[in-house]
Design a protein that fits this description.
Helix content: over 70%
Largest sheet: none
Radius of gyration: 25 Å
Order of helices and strands: HHHHHHHHHHHHH
Low-confidence stretches: 1-8
Number of helices: 13
Shape: globular
Mean pLDDT: 75
Distance between the termini: 41 Å
């Protein structure tokens, strides 16, 4: 009897451990080479295609369904990018309005409130008028012109990475998998690592989107509904609602960032409004922990404090990209440890 072909055998322990090592090197290289945006964009498109293909696959063949889904997603992504850019320009124009009025009616009142509440040693460094504030801003921009220029180049590079990631994710989702007997053992092991990473991404990102939507809805009701009914209008309320959703995509930390911004804006109205906003946000913060325990914790069997520790360690090692990647990387690590029955 002929022995089975080596490529059809299950990966040995040595090859499996080699796949773990290669996966770890690849994930760390993504952060070191600043390719996290491309990875996340690719995973997002891949997961969307995987989720939508079965819906079309009920009436259309699998390969044809994938082609249709990827083509539709490409058109949707381009359309959404255009709408997002135009919508952002329109939104900030309507929200901020006349720059001169922004200086006088929103920024200077914040400064005046700060003068009344901050120590004298800090008040001396605050501008005395709109003109002082404008001159200080222009001078700050002049001193950091090189940094701003680099930031602009970084934004363009980030956009290019995202586009490349979207294309790669679509191509990978569209590509046909080879039969098992044509795949080597190392490729099989690496494919399993990629599958676990995609599952971790799905569990974390889509769960966090649900949490952020709930937090944003509560914040919108408070800032755009309850307070205006009481005759209180917090500056830049719409911007704060949008900020709540965006930063809310970061587990735990995002909620703290949005809470701080909303509290500062509420304090610019009055101390009472600031205290009311702080009390409301404490309730939302507790809701965030509850939702993390029920949604994220159920998906990856992790508590909020575990994610927070992972985010702190990754931030210390890789900065802001580490904070963004930490929940996904941690979920992936736990899935691999559970697969090996180590935890």
């Amino acid at each position: 009897m002929n022995s089975p072909s080596p490529v059809s055998r299950e990966p040995s322990s040595a090859l499996r451990y080699a796949s773990y090592l290669l996966s770890a090197v690849a994930l760390l290289s993504v952060l070191g080479l600043h390719l996290l945006s491309a990875l996340l964009a690719g995973l997002l498109v891949y997961e969307l295609v995987q989720a939508m293909t079965p819906l079309l696959g009920k009436r259309i063949s699998g390969d044809r369904a994938r082609v249709l889904v990827v083509a539709a997603l490409g058109a949707i992504v381009v359309g959404l990018l255009i709408l997002l850019i135009l919508g952002a320009i329109s939104f900030f124009r309507s929200e901020i309005g006349n720059p001169e009025l922004l200086w006088q009616q929103q920024l200077m009142p914040l400064v005046e409130k700060a003068r009344q509440q901050l120590p004298a040693m800090l008040v001396d460094h605050l501008p005395d008028s709109v003109e002082d504030l404008r001159v200080g801003t222009v001078e700050l921009a002049r001193k950091h012109a090189e940094t701003l220029q680099l930031a602009g180049k970084g934004a363009v590079r980030l956009f290019v990475h995202i586009l490349i990631g979207l294309v790669l994710g679509a191509i990978i989702a569209l590509s046909r998998a080879r039969p098992a007997h044509q795949v080597g053992p190392l490729a099989t092991a690496l494919g399993l690592r990629c599958q676990h990473l995609a599952e971790a991404f799905h569990n974390i990102v889509f769960a966090q989107i649900k949490i952020s939507l709930i937090n944003t809805l509560c914040t919108a009701i408070f800032l755009l509904g309850a307070l205006p009914l009481l005759g209180v209008h917090v500056p830049l309320a719409k911007t704060l609602v949008v900020l709540t959703f965006v930063v809310g995509l970061l587990p735990v930390v995002g909620n703290l960032l949005s809470n701080a911004a909303i509290t500062i804006a509420a304090l610019s109205v009055s101390l009472g409004v600031g205290v009311a906003a702080l009390g409301f946000l404490i309730v939302i913060h507790k809701l965030e922990y509850f939702l993390n325990a029920r949604i994220v914790g159920t998906q990856i069997h992790a508590r909020a404090w575990e994610l927070l520790i992972a985010m702190l360690l990754m931030e210390a090692a890789f900065g802001l990209p580490g904070v963004i990647a930490a929940p996904i990387y941690y979920a992936y690590l736990k899935s691999e440890l559970e697969a090996e029955k180590l935890i």
